[in-house]
């Protein structure tokens, strides 16, 4: 019903960080996290519109039209929305780790022949 709101909140926060703390955002590659979050939010919002759970008139979320459905909506946001957000952040962390280790391996392969040459010419 409203599970896409949880990653949307994080996407808004990370977009703000990207605009204000540019050096930190560049170091942490926040743009990758933003792309993952905003892409997921847009797809989920479209899916919810497709199924009639989000409508273009107030209260916009059909679960809020009936007060008895509000606890169900909040439970879905707390469980499914939080897990989707955590999975997205974990995927971003894996992307960062793979890129960091790939850079380390590539740097080691480039410097290894130089070290070997240096060692053999000294002896």
Task: Itemize the secondary structure elements and their pairings.
Elements (H helix, E strand, L loop, with lengths): L4 H16 L1 H7 L1 H21 L19 H53 L1
Helix pairs in contact: 1-2, 1-3, 1-4, 3-4
Explain this structure to me?
- With 123 residues, this protein is mainly α.
- It has one domain (5-122).
- It is built from four helices and no strands.
- The protein has helices at 5-20, 22-28, 30-50, 70-122.
- The chain starts with a helix and ends with a helix.
- The mean pLDDT is 89.
Task: Give a count of the beta strands, DSSP E runs of length 2 or more.
Answer: 0
Derived structural class: mainly alpha
State the major sheet: none
**Total helical elements:** 4
Low-confidence stretches: none
Q: Which oligomeric state applies?
A: single chain
Q: How many structural domains? A: 1
Radius of gyration: 22 Å
SSE ordering: HHHH
List keywords for this structure.
123 residues; mainly alpha; 0% strand; elongated
Question: How would you briefly describe this protein structure?
Answer:
With 123 residues, this protein is mainly α. 79% of the residues lie in helices and 0% in strands.
